[in-house]
Records
---
Amino acid sequence: MPENSIGDFRFLSLTLPDNVKQRVIVSTRPGVPGAALWLTGTRGLPFEATSKVDAPSLAGAIGLLRQYEELIGQDPVDMVWNDIPVTDGGTQLAVLGVAPIAGRVFRLASSTGGLHPPGYGWIEARWNLILLPTD
């Protein structure tokens, strides 16, 4: 199973938008043929990620959410998505907000595998994040 994490929190699944680190701005001007491309680098544009993970119980899932919330406004952390470090020596991730996805924190009847076997709780959360330069 690939590693997915934000700070010390590991997930079974972490969904990110495209172009989290590098964006391209296309510049055109009326009356001038062609276009210019500008690479923005790590400019600190907020983005959303969605995490999914099992928990030992429903209370454990709610406890995880409370721990996630403690990251809001704290020192930046590292992120790994599908075994690929999103943050590197020059960037880290700040958590601007995190909330459960409506109806996606619940008790499981039973499960096998996962990060907290046997997992009887489940949580899906939406994270509001921003990459910050650390240099």
Note: The chain has a mean pLDDT of 84.
---
Amino acid sequence: MNARTAWAAIDADNIRRRSIGLSVVRLPSNYSTNEVPTAGGFSWMAGAEHDALPALLEMLEHLGVEHRNDAELTTAALLNMLHRHLTNNQRQCVPFVNEKLNERMGVNRYLFEAVDHLISKVRESLATSRE
């Protein structure tokens, strides 16, 4: 890989980051002109032009569908927990995952009961670990 190709790849990655609203770009910490840059750190930029949350929620929903089978139910549960937390319980991620979780945990008063229970356990655990 030559220096031009390497910088083009870095730029393409940073354009993708900015297009979804991230306010961080990846740049090499040290580089020399006309040399292939080494793996680098991050640089923060002030104020993203777009809110990254909608893009993240959409990705969580997509990943939830991808991981909905029984073998990956733990991953689906974690994705649903993050989605539910980030939306302040206003949106659902993947409903049939919630149904599977309710069934596995032996609850069924409402669709998000298992996910809400898991989130509350995490919150309780983190709250008591500070004391």
Note: Residues 53-129 form one domain.
---
Amino acid sequence: MPNGSPTIDTVRVGGPVEAVNIGAPGWRMSVENTQAGISEKARRRQLPSGAWLDVVAGRAWVEASVPKLLRGVNYPAAPLPDVVEAATMMLEEASGFVRFSEGDPLVNRLDVVSDLPLEDQMTVGTVISTLAALPVMGAQSVTHHLDPTRHKAQTLSKRTKSAGSGTLYDKLRESGNEAARGVLRFEGRERRRSLRAAGIERLSDLDPVLVDLVGRERFKWCGFDTPMLTDQDFWQHLLDARMYDRTRLQVYGFACAQRDLGGISGLFEARRSDYRWRKFLHEFGVLTKADQSMRIDYDEGLVMAA
């Protein structure tokens, strides 16, 4: 993805509604808990284009994968101007069932995407498994699994309860072996809270610079730019750092355990010293089983150490 030219997968827009045509067939009913803890009846239906329309608590939202809506497949991701076109199409379709009270719709979800080229298909699994060993810091929730919703593609996700999430996954497997080989997709899913903090509240606020910055900040927040080091390079970092020999051995042992067991940070959160070890890994990098140190760049993909 060129610098400053963000690409998008899914968008969700909408806002307050004045009227809902609940008599039309095709609505699905459910109950949702609002932020205030009040149970509200929710209605959902699929529009003719394949987009989804949701109505809950006096608001309506339309949601779809932009490239899939416009081209039939979700790869490659869509440039930002296509988001406005897709949103306009969905809102026009939804007008047969709801009447919005505001002209400029709110943005409730935006998935900023970067397709990262790697050396080959085998490297995709190596990178995901290595970054999965990065210890959890703060309020992150981490999952590393074969995602059944993505054709069992190897997937690494880091998220918070309400602000958003960042995900790396094997794009070739997710697409049913139709996308390009050796591509690792990063998907930063931003919700309304994080979008508002970045200055994006309505569809008219989708400025390329702001959207690009949101994607880069989520990528960094997930730690996906963390160096992946060989044993030799990692040990050299420890030797260059000012610490006792005993601490060096403890940090190195912890890093080896993270790598070999695929991430075991949850076992270490109780002790203060273990927090220091996790912090060291975030500063230095994580150990990889690859033959050469490397890192992932948001624009260029895989960058091998010199």
Note: The two ends are 23 Å apart (CA to CA).
---
Amino acid sequence: MAVEGDSYCATADVVALVQLGAYGAGTVPTAAQGLEFQQDRAMEIYSWMVEALGTSAPGPAAFNTTIDTGTDAGVALDALCKQANAQGAAADSLEAAGASSTPARTERVTELLTMFFASKDGIQAVAKLYDGGADTAKNAFTEGRVTTETITSHTEDGFEFDGETVW
């Protein structure tokens, strides 16, 4: 049985995206099902990081190795994981609540899942910065030279920063 802390986000983050009110014993999904959705999506995010980093990937709060938010890269990785986890779990929750019952809900599920899966590359890239996989990129990031304005593009090969791909 999933518990709060088994994911990168809190139930409140998911409820805010679902916009159907708080989970409870009599809601669809139930509070327990909502936590299961969060945990399932957290494990998917964790697998993305394992793919990028190997076994040194940080997990959610219930894991032995978690994201250290004492660095800029850690703060960024934590925020990306939290956002993606909430988006994926919210899509699952809306589907459980009968998302196909209205076109607006179906569209919202599609939007949330699109954002969830689109976050994979960003999470993997920031996880590499977090783990020190690219020294130049990590130094630029921690020195405050990498911002949304200085990253000129992002591809599956990495970030383009000051005219060069950093990994």
Note: The chain has one domain: 11-133.
